[in-house]
Write a structure and sequence with these properties.
By secondary structure, the protein is α+β, with helices and mostly antiparallel strands. The chain contains 13 helices and 18 strands. The strands form five sheets. Strands 7, 8, 9, 10, 11 and 12 form a six-stranded antiparallel beta sheet that branches. Strands 1-6-2-3 form a four-stranded antiparallel beta sheet, with helices on one face. Strands 14-16-17-18 form a four-stranded parallel beta sheet, sandwiched between helices. Strand 10 and strand 11 form a beta hairpin. Helix 5 packs across helix 6 and helix 11 packs parallel to helix 12. The radius of gyration is 25 Å and the shape is elongated. It starts with a helix and ends with a helix.
């Protein structure tokens, strides 16, 4: 789960990470009042779930109340387009009004903690190159990114923080401050069950203060049952509507751009393989949809409804391994969904496993126009042909 910058800073501040003072504003009047309370200058920041806001005009300095008001009027309601939003952009519905800091003589660096899945443990990263797209830095000079892997059983150790502070070439008098800040940052990462905490830029002011000038925080969805207070931070306006709808039924759905074949699969690995084989057959998947190992007929019906709500879908491929989810239960759900939703697009079904023959028999006897396949290759070729034909 992603949250906004101002929310991420509030979470980090609870663990002792120093952040600038700021207030969220939903209206122009709230932005003006926030600026008056914080004192000038202030920074007006558009709040969307995407990076690159500064380059796109979503971060501006206001040196007067009038300038703050003008910027708030311009930003609220605008559709901000960055390299992470895609060409459609994101609607700005809230602003962060933040105290302006003296950046003259300041150093901008980079800190992040994330889960390295290959290593099977968290990694704390630091770079002296901050305030820019860190992906470019890593591609240009991998040695500019310093890493400390954290053993979960013992946690982030002070010596590791000192190694990162030395790697950033911080003045000797600031090393202890940096160790305290990094330790607090890791406590926040661990305590909030985060999957990512990124500070870019991590600022060292001319006066010797260390501040998290920006904050990107993502949480592990699987741990949210432990954090009811964090669930309340979710902004549904920043998420794909169909993905939000799918989450209500415990379905894992991700919309993909430009695809025409709707996919309904059980199991993430099989879903990925299904998308690959559709591409191999010359088509393009419209989504990732994992209905889970134990999906019910009702979940299948809702999954179908969500698939067909995407206007780009020209044909549907259902690829199910009948383990926990029996093939006859799948067939029951699919038949009910096709009848209730009056499905017009072609549907290709490939099912293997528990009660496979019974499931196929139910599809044949339904009187509906299903096409079946024995192998994934055959299913992919059939659904791609059907999608091309439906598009004509």
């Amino acid at each position: 789960m992603k949250i906004h910058e101002y929310q991420g800073k509030a979470v980090l501040a609870q663990y002792g990470v120093p952040v600038p003072r700021g207030k969220v504003a939903y209206t122009v009047d709230e932005a003006v009042e926030a600026a008056k309370g914080l004192g000038l200058p202030v920074v007006v920041k558009a709040q969307i779930h995407a990076g690159g806001r500064g380059k796109a005009g979503g971060v501006k300095v206001a040196r007067s109340i009038e300038e703050c008001e003008a910027l708030a009027k311009k930003m609220l309601g605008m559709r901000l387009k960055t390299h992470q939003t895609g060409p459609e952009g994101r609607m700005v519905r809230r602003l962060l009004i933040e105290q302006g800091l003296d950046l003259e003589g300041a150093r901008e660096m980079y800190l992040a903690i994330l889960v390295d899945r290959a290593a099977g443990r968290p990694v704390f990263m630091a770079s002296a190159s901050g305030g820019v797209e860190i992906e470019e830095v890593a591609a240009r000079d991998p040695r500019a990114i310093h890493r400390e892997y954290v053993e979960p059983a013992v946690g982030f150790q002070p010596f590791q923080a000192r190694k990162l502070a030395f790697a950033l070439a911080l003045p000797g008098g600031l090393v202890s401050k940096a160790v305290a800040l990094m330790t607090s940052l890791y406590r926040a990462f661990e305590g909030a069950d985060a999957s990512l905490v990124e500070i870019n830029p991590f600022l060292m002011t001319r006066a010797g203060e260390l501040i998290a000038l920006d904050a990107k925080v993502n949480f592990d969805d699987n741990a949210l049952f432990r954090h009811g207070e964090l669930v309340e931070l979710r902004d549904f306006d920043e998420e794909e509507p169909l993905e939000v709808e799918a989450s209500k039924y415990s379905l894992n759905y991700i919309k993909l751009e430009g695809g025409s074949v709707g996919c309904m699969v059980n199991g993430a690995g099989l879903a990925m393989a299904t998308m690959d084989i559709i591409k191999l057959a010359g088509g393009s998947p419209a989504n990732f949809l994992d209905v889970g190992g134990g999906a019910s007929a009702d979940q299948i019906k809702n999954a179908f409804r969500i698939l067909l709500a995407d206007p780009d879908v020209r044909a549907v491929l259902i690829n199910i391994f009948g383990g926990i989810l029996r093939c006859d239960v799948l067939a029951e759900g699919v038949i009910a969904a096709v009848r209730a939703l009056q499905v017009k697009v072609p549907v290709v079904v490939r099912m293997k496993g528990n009660n496979e023959e019974k499931g196929r028999s139910m599809l044949r006897e339904s009187g509906l126009n299903f096409d079946t396949a024995d192998t994934m290759t055959e299913a992919a070729e059939k659904v791609v042909r059907a999608a091309v034909g439906a598009a004509r």
